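User: Sequence recovery, please. Input:
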């Protein structure tokens, strides 16, 4: 069964994945397909596709889901191991020491997002194992995203309001009892969209 997420923490997996042709083969394996079918879709030789599929299977990025007999030959049917693949920031590791940054800097936000990505991936793996064993429902979480427009002269007021709202939550729910949750809020300028 295809997972929602495969979190890659091994260099050999990242090296296997990060080849443009291999990524195209993996995309074709979103649905179960044989190497012959993938080769036809990508206008590649069957041998080349088979080589890439074998590397993907070898490193746990794809799986053989069935086998069928075609013109007297057994042909494997393969599928991607997951719908999404995340590369752990630990693959490169921290280069140099973490800088002491102002909470309003993009560098601080990068550090925070690295921590969130690592935490969410670990939780997702734990939750998937619990759901598979039918021991617990999925872990409670909340993601909220939206766009806000703030005039330049009102930015300080907006940031102060946001900080006060969050401090209010921390004060109200910051006791020592109950389940522990982490809260990470990211506020950054929206990228201009090409178009």
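Assistant: Recovered sequence (195 residues):
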């Amino acid at each position: 069964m295809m997972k929602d997420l495969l979190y890659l923490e091994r260099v050999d997996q990242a090296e296997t994945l990060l080849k443009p042709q291999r990524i195209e083969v993996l995309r074709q394996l979103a649905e179960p397909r044989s190497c012959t079918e993938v080769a036809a879709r990508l206008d590649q030789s069957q041998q080349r596709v088979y080589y890439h599929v074998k590397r993907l299977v070898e490193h746990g990025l794809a799986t053989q889901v069935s086998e069928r007999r075609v013109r007297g030959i057994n042909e494997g049917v393969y599928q991607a191991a997951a719908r999404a693949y995340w590369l752990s920031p630990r693959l490169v590791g921290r280069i140099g020491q973490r800088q002491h940054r102002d909470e309003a800097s993009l560098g601080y936000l990068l550090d925070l997002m690295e921590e969130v990505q690592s935490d969410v991936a670990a939780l997702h793996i734990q939750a998937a194992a619990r759901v598979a064993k039918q021991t617990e429902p999925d872990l409670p979480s909340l993601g909220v995203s939206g766009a806000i427009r703030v005039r330049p002269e009102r930015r300080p007021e907006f940031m102060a309001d946001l900080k006060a709202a969050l401090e209010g939550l921390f004060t109200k729910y910051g006791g020592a009892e109950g389940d522990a949750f982490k809260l990470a809020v990211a506020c950054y300028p929206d990228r201009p969209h090409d178009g």
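The chain has a mean pLDDT of 85.
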